[in-house]
Amino acid sequence: xxxxxxxxxxxxxxxxxxxxxGISLSGSHDKADDLVQETVMKAWASHGSFVEGTNLRAxxxxxxRNTYFSQYRKARREVQDVDGEAAARLxxxxxxxxxxxxxxxxxxxxxxxxxxxxxxxxxxxSGFSYEExxxxxxxxxxxxxSRVNRARTKLMQALSIDSLDEIGSGFGAWGTDxxxxxxxx
Length: 185
What we know:
- This protein is mostly helical.
- Helix content is 69%, strand content 0%.
- It has 10 helices and no strands.
- It has helices at 3-13, 15-26, 29-45, 56-77, 85-89, 95-111, 114-125, 130-137, 141-158, 178-182.
- The longest helix has 22 residues, at 56-77.
- It starts with a helix and ends with a helix.
């Protein structure tokens, strides 16, 4: 008898034990039959790696157990979506709109008067208080407040924004100092 015939005969003799183990793993006769079929296919495909004289049953059970757990992990990640409702709820905002918005913002920011742009960047982007920005710019606090307000108004006009609600989360805190930004206020 050739080695492949002996392997095939021994493999066929293990089918009842494989089915019983498959049922114990999956709890279902149908799933157990699928597991047995998958195990036999994998064993047959890699029969060259089986070392004769070792325990074929243990080798087959290991293949089945690994196959079962791989399928189980895969099934846990899958979402049952027969009618397509879950897929319909998945929305991905295209990334190019953000780049276009940023380009528009940069152009509008560059169009501001230099003193307004500086005040807005210090207070709005860098998080300095009005007092700190006034000290940096060497002018009165009221002047900084006025420059920031005019810069915001011009930016909103240039970007066709009617209210801060249209901007999105995280941008309503313009003009707050760093200590209130850090505390989340």
